[in-house]
Design goal:
CATH class of the largest domain: Mainly Alpha
Helix content: over 70%
Order of helices and strands: HHHHHHHHHHHHHHHHHHH
Distance between the termini: 29 Å
CATH architecture of the largest domain: Up-down Bundle
Radius of gyration: 21 Å
Strand content: under 5%
Shape: globular
CATH superfamily of the largest domain: MFS general substrate transporter like domains
Structural class: mainly alpha
């Protein structure tokens, strides 16, 4: 299964994310070097996330109209143009506009790739495919800063944008050269388009207001993890070097678990991963205020990364499970909108509480969000996916079905 989608899905995702990873560390540096304030730098960092939220629903119309491959090619092309603008134009307005556009293009790219993988992979292998796709994104984001650092060392800070341009162009070349795989034959041919996001939300209101709320909380806790760890490290007086080492070790633990996570989901059901993932993230977040040294914070960071790692691809998998056979892309656009909204709000919660109370309290509240997400997933996943538990997953495996037919 992985060999089938490696060139057409996993490789483009990995290369595309190398570009995103290359520019991620330098956005704030470029803004500050232009004489802007720290708050302006923070706003600039948030614009890509805003672009993803703005682009989620329109992306479905684009993907439905021109198809997965062309949508990704278009997203890569527009992203390359925006990156060239960042590279050659030093005005902050260009950087702001480019970040917004890149976020919108990323929405289209992710949506098209998820829709493609959901259709070409057999149902009993879906979780492994989507968790590996999520792993490819993470590996690309991990490699990107190192490639960018080499370019910066040789040619200066803005050369990281050149790395991103090269990665995006390479992604487009891969999409042109590598053919797509045939749609899996274990389900009826799905129809695309014809349903607006508003109508889709109305038809599945109960799902989006229950399981969708849990998805929003998952996005919030995952995004907050990346923010609160460096904030707490600074709060307890750790050096930048120590903080970077903690992050590196934690990210290594995170990336090593994406394929086992998908295997467990396919074999033992989605809840076998979803609930432990958010429980570990929530408990780890609650433990951060009790960590007063590098070792303690490192242990907590690894525990949280294990929780995040075993949940690799879980949101994409649940969305693909719950999506209707017809107009899957529009459904997934609304689904992704909920997750991206959580990603945008997650870092705001602890920061806002820290402004009026204490950082530790803000982190603890975010930890409670994680536990609430675990409870919500445990309650609502069985209602909306036929692969929630081990028994449900076994009942839908091909060998089980064929045995039943012989009998």
């Amino acid at each position: 299964m992985l060999r089938r989608i490696a060139a057409s899905a996993l490789l483009p995702a990995l290369v595309y994310e190398i570009g995103n990873g290359a520019i991620a560390p330098i956005i704030a540096l470029v803004v500050l070097s232009a004489g802007a304030s720290t708050s302006t730098a923070g706003l600039m960092l948030a614009l890509a996330g805003v672009g993803r939220i703005v682009g989620d629903v329109p992306a479905a119309a684009v993907v439905n109209r021109i198809g997965d491959r062309r949508a990704m090619l278009g997203a890569a092309g527009v992203t390359a143009v925006a990156l060239v603008g960042c590279w050659v134009d030093h005005d902050l307005w260009m950087l702001a506009l480019s970040q917004l556009v890149i976020g919108m293009c990323t929405s289209a790219f992710y949506l098209a790739r998820q829709s493609y993988v959901s259709e070409v992979v057999a149902l009993h292998q879906r979780a492994r495919a989507l968790s590996t796709l999520a792993g490819a994104h993470r590996v690309g984001l991990f490699i990107g800063p190192f490639v960018g650092a080499l370019a910066i060392h040789l040619w200066g800070t803005r050369s990281a944008f050149g790395v991103a341009v090269a990665a995006t162009v390479a992604t487009a070349v891969i999409l042109i050269v590598v053919p797509d795989q045939e749609v899996a034959g274990d389900r009826p041919q799905a129809h695309r388009g014809g349903t607006s996001a508003r109508i889709m939300f109305s038809r599945h209101r109960e799902l989006f207001c229950t399981l969708g709320a849990a998805v929003l909380l998952v996005g919030a806790v995952r995004a907050a993890r990346q923010t609160v760890l460096p904030l707490w490290a600074s709060h307890i007086g750790l050096s930048a070097t120590a903080t970077s080492i903690i992050f590196g070790i934690a990210n290594a633990a995170d990336m090593s678990l994406f394929y086992p996570a998908g295997h467990v989901m396919d074999r033992f059901g989605r809840l076998a991963v979803a609930v432990p993932s958010m429980t570990l993230l929530g408990l780890g977040m609650l433990a951060i205020p009790a960590a007063h040294g590098a070792v303690a914070l490192g242990v907590v960071a690894v525990v949280m990364s294990i929780g995040n790692g075993i949940g690799s691809g879980i949101m994409m998998t649940l969305g693909s499970d719950a999506a209707p056979a017809d107009d899957r892309t529009t459904f997934l656009s609304v689904w992704r909108l909920l997750g991206d909204t959580g990603n945008a709000l997650g870092p705001v919660v602890p920061a806002a509480i820290a402004e009026v109370a204490a950082l530790g309290l803000g982190i603890s509240v975010t930890g409670l969000f994680g536990l609430a997400a675990a409870i919500g997933l445990a309650r609502w996943v069985p209602r909306h996916t036929p692969y929630a538990t081990r028994a449900m997953a076994r009942a839908h495996r091909p060998e089980r079905t064929s045995v039943g037919r012989r009998r």
